[in-house]
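User: Batch of two.

Assistant: Item 1 of 2:
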Amino acid sequence: MNRENKLSDSSDQTAADSKPSNTPSAHSKPSSYRRQPRRSFLEKCLAACGGIGFLCMSYPVLRYIEPPPETEGPNRIEIDSAELPTGTSTMVIYRGRPTLVVHGPDGFIAYSAVCPHLGCVVKWAESDEEFRCPCHGGRFDIKGQKLGGPVPGPLTAIKVQEVGNKILVGA
């Protein structure tokens, strides 16, 4: 053989040595083993489960914050006037929304208990004779007018009528 054939045979041999063989060695993993696609699949599954869990937890919180629509519930509510001494209040559900009925010095009054700021439910403070919003410190006088806090306006008044020994809310 001449020298050129020997060089080409040796270069073919080194090229064959550099090609990966199909026979697995004792320390190498099979070619079908793919770590990255499985890891990314599991990461996507975990992200999907986390997203679904977040949505499942946030829906009840949002429904709790938002008051129910006004169209649900009775259009007229009767309360026994003996149950409401002067200076006290009671909470009723009128048209699906919380409503405060107060026996003030001038008679009975009723206001929607939904704060006009963010929709929290206001409470009647007997000692100060004012409505207070526990969420952001909104305050209203006995006539529903704004006294302080970040509220944009007054409470919504609801008609009240006293007939005999009954108080009619929404009359």
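Item 2 of 2:
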Amino acid sequence: MNIMKAIGCILVIVSSTGMGFFFSNELRCRIENLKEFKKLIGLLRGDIRYANTPLPEAISSITRRHSGNFDAFFNHVNAKLHEFSGQTFSEVWKEAVQKEMADTSMSNKDKLHIIQFGETLGYLDKDMQMNTIDLFVSQLEDEIKDLSKTIKEKAYLYNTLGIMAGIFIIIIMI
């Protein structure tokens, strides 16, 4: 019987510690996702600004050149834009964010900012699109900087809380 209790205690500690490490890893992945999305928006900005490419063609160009975490997102937007289904760009963008970014480490706040970016991007002239993209990139940079400042402390907190929660559960069980 004591062996079963010991095995149970070890499993509780391992699982709660694993949860703590999972949450700290999600935070790191969120930063990496934001950096990658910022890079892709920079590519979009370059295509629109320097090549005078219309927005649907610029997105199509990104889908051909990029493969990564947001490949499915840009493929979805590209496919919907070339269907000519009557949806506005903001509707297509919002639908792609909701469907294709569900499994990313981005928070709901990040997804909301991306949706708002898509709402203002699709119907403006070139200069206003550039201003919108520049504003969005600066917001992403601020978010990345804020997360990078606190990642070490939050990761340590998640890891420690995972271990301590396991120990607390064991104390209650015994």
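Residues 11-173 form one domain.
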